[in-house]
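Collaborator request, handled under Task 6.
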Amino acid sequence: MQLSMENGISKYSIGSFLNYAGMLCNNKVFRNIEGGCRLGRIVMKTVSSKRFGSCSDQKAKLCFQYYALIAYYSEPFQHCRDMLREGVEAGLGTGDVRYSFLNALNSIRLGLLSGKNLQDLLKETEYYLSMMGKQKENQTKALMLMFHETISLLISNSEYTAPTIATGSIIPPLQHCFHKALQSFFKSRSERCNHFAEKIMQAAEGGRQHHIFITFYYALNSFKVAEIVHTKKINAVPDQALSAFRAAAEHSKDNFQNKVELLEAELYNRDGENDKAKASYAAAIASARLSKFIHEEGLACEKAALHHKKIGETSEALNYFTKAQECYKKWGSQVKADEIERQIELMQM
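Structure tokens returned to the collaborator:
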């Protein structure tokens, strides 16, 4: 970037400006999400205008820099995922295999976090794994296998046999923690989820792509953990997360508003403010549906059902459990659908 300022801007300067935009969004010391997103949008519009000529040879890299590291703060997850998939094809077309497969990894990540149907996502993952195997991209294949495991475990309770990872491939610790926390959350293993999520939350460096996403599940999970372990640290988690998501929702209601409302509902539930809790659960369900986050719509319905069950409103609880089960089935998670079925059976006994 300094070279560009001193010697003039060319198409090869674009990546450095996106690097700076990403640093503004993700650096904990001088974070400026609004500024980073604005700079990123300007850079990508400049690329589209072809002001510096064709950047087709850089498209895969630029897609990764912007849509994997910056744009999800302000643009819908689904759009970011679509553009990352374009980056996959662009990289394959120009021989930029490294960035092609980095785009593939992040398109799967955003597909998982935005509620893409799990069976479809598993097929897509297996397609990318096949391509990575042919290209002998063992490192990215190892990372993609983690997504394959997580998606498979969310679909079914069947035993998962992990494929052998090629010698020399490394799974970064925070990548491992992200997957284990997510798997544990949706399998209702609260203490295990808390263990892995805390490792991400406490990391001084790294994990920037996972932090904002795992914060939501970490906070929701903390309500369960607080029933077992009563500490100021655990009790403070939801309020801290709510503050972070309120700030995030200022940049993208599409991605974060439903999370704000569900955390608010759970806090009202904890504090016995039942009318406010009911209104916030309803708002969270509506926002998740509007954003097409079918998994988080199901999650909000499930939490609403548990709230109504807690205060003795059986009919409303059964209604919300049924809606949650429908959402989880559409998502493709038989694991969660079966869990809800057990809740319904217990209430009907």
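The cover message to the collaborator said: "Residues 63 and 87 are 5 Å apart (CA to CA). The first helix runs from residue 2 to 7. Please let us know whether this matches your experimental observations."
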